[in-house]
Write a structure and sequence with these properties.
The protein is α+β, with helices and mostly antiparallel strands. The protein has three domains: 74 residues, no CATH class; 58 residues; 210 residues, L,D-transpeptidase catalytic domain-like (Beta Barrel), CATH 2.40.440. Helices cover 34% and strands 16% of the residues. The protein has 14 helices and 13 strands. The strands form three sheets. The protein has an eight-stranded mixed barrel with strand order 1-2-3-10-8-7-4-11. A two-stranded antiparallel sheet has the order 5-6.
Length: 447
């Protein structure tokens, strides 16, 4: 009897051992030393990721170490989604795995540091903000117009000085909003998508009264976004800053061309991506997407039966040879599989030039016949593509002579020209001043 009980007990123990999950080995510590302090690689990774110190203090050492590894893998996954070109192994997950197995994390992370003046300048402002314990707040009040006096003006002068602006001494009363101050406010308003009227408004008061901690949080989001770009800056590249509504062409000596752009509406946002310009299409035709047809063109045609014909559109039907006249189509029940194509010409939505770029979103840079919206402060107006204020200038700066072709022509690029569509709501201007812009797609709270 005893042996039977013992046998049953042993059988039960064996069954439990089989059913129990295997014991997990302790996670290896990569980023801390034996003194529970960040090692060299851990310090470098922390400088790249910029974790919130308060949140990190709530974690155990093992949790902090695991967070650093997990967050860096998240950056690499975002970089892979951003890049519409093959990533070098060192910039992808494979490079990180190799560094882990070879024990060369410090050397690997040195190669991940963004080598862009814009990144370094923004990092300097981020670090400087940690030393600021007090700012001069602007008192509440109503709108102040140029030439008017207000008790907030002396505080405005002091606050702008703290932000790095060089102010001329007031010619008259120190509490008057003089021309110099008004011009600075215009620049701030333009950068922030506000009407550039040079007045001290409620929006400007709110912006200037942001605490150093609030600014650091925004800069943290933007410094992380630099990690999506190739760490080494190309010799020549285009940077389209979506929230700033601006395109800048850089070469090895710095910016060589800058212009206003129009980007996607908040309900049709321009995606962040890295790609290359592979060709210039001169006198392009335009094939709108199904969404644009459904949401914009069909309603316009139904309101005005001559709309599509007047704007140079033809209809192409499955299994039917040749272009069909829009006047022959029943627009209340349009045929399935129909395509609309707008012929080249002065009314074509793409203007004279379309810059062809590899990406799965059908996003490209292009000219536009309607230049009026470039006068607007807020220019999130397109269906996702980027409209250029001065496309002819970009054509010339990228090495094409301005062609006079009357027909559609595709001219290959002389070499691959990198293009980065980025979402920077904070950057440093040519005067070394920190500039912020509206978070037009509400991404800062999501990072």
């Amino acid at each position: 009897m005893l042996s039977l009980k013992l046998s049953l007990k042993l059988s039960l123990m064996l069954l439990l051992l089989v059913l129990m999950p295997p014991l997990q080995a302790a996670e290896r510590i990569w980023w801390h030393n034996e003194n529970n302090e960040l090692n060299e690689a851990g310090q470098m990774l922390t400088e790249l990721l910029l974790p919130d110190p308060a949140a990190m203090n709530d974690l155990s050492l093992a949790e902090r170490d695991a967070w650093l590894s997990r967050e860096w893998r998240r950056v690499l996954a975002q970089r892979a989604r951003f890049a519409q070109y093959p990533l070098a192994p060192d910039q992808a997950e494979a490079g990180f795995e190799q560094a882990l197995h070879s024990g060369e994390l410090s050397a690997y992370l040195r190669r991940q540091l963004p080598d862009y003046p814009g990144y370094r300048q923004l990092k300097q402002h981020y670090q400087a903000l940690s030393q600021i314990k007090h700012i001069t707040p602007l008192p509440p009040g109503g709108e102040v117009r140029p030439g008017e006096r207000d008790r907030a003006i002396p505080a405005l002068r002091q606050r702008l000085t703290e932000l790095g602006y060089s102010l001329k001494a007031p010619r008259g009363r120190a509490d008057a909003l003089d021309r110099n101050l008004s011009d600075i406010l215009k620049g701030l308003q333009q950068a922030n998508g506000l009407a550039p009227n040079g007045r001290l408004t409620a929006d400007i008061r709110t912006m200037l009264n942001r605490s150093p901690a609030e600014l650091r949080q925004e800069l943290r989001h933007n410094l992380r976004r630099w990690l999506l770009l190739p760490p080494a800056a190309p010799d020549q590249y285009l940077l389209v800053n979506i929230p700033a509504y601006r395109l800048t062409l850089f070469n090895s000596t710095g910016p060589t061309l800058s212009m206003k752009v129009i980007v996607g509406r908040p309900d049709w946002p321009t995606p962040e991506l890295g790609t290359h310009i592979r060709a210039l299409k001169v006198n392009p035709d335009w094939t709108p997407t199904a969404n644009i047809i459904r949401e914009d063109l069909l309603p316009a045609q139904r309101r005005d039966r001559g709309f599509l014909s007047r704007h140079g559109f033809g209809v192409w039907l499955p299994g039917v040879a040749g272009r069909q006249d829009p006047g022959t189509i029943d627009w209340q029940q349009p045929p399935a599989g129909m395509r609309l194509v707008q012929a080249p010409g002065p009314d074509n939505a793409l203007g004279r030039f379309k810059f062809e770029m590899n990406n799965p979103f059908d996003i490209y840079l292009h000219d536009t016949p309607d230049k009026r919206p470039f006068a607007e402060a807020q220019r999130a107006l397109s269906h996702g593509c980027v409209r250029l204020a001065e496309s002819d200038q970009l054509v010339q700066n990228l090495g094409w002579s301005l062609p006079e072709y009357k027909q559609t022509r595709i001219l290959p690029a002389h070499r691959k020209i990198p293009v980065f569509l980025v979402y920077f709501t904070a950057w440093v201007d040519e005067g070394g001043r920190l500039v912020t812009s509206p978070d037009i797609y509400n991404k800062n709270g999501m990072s």
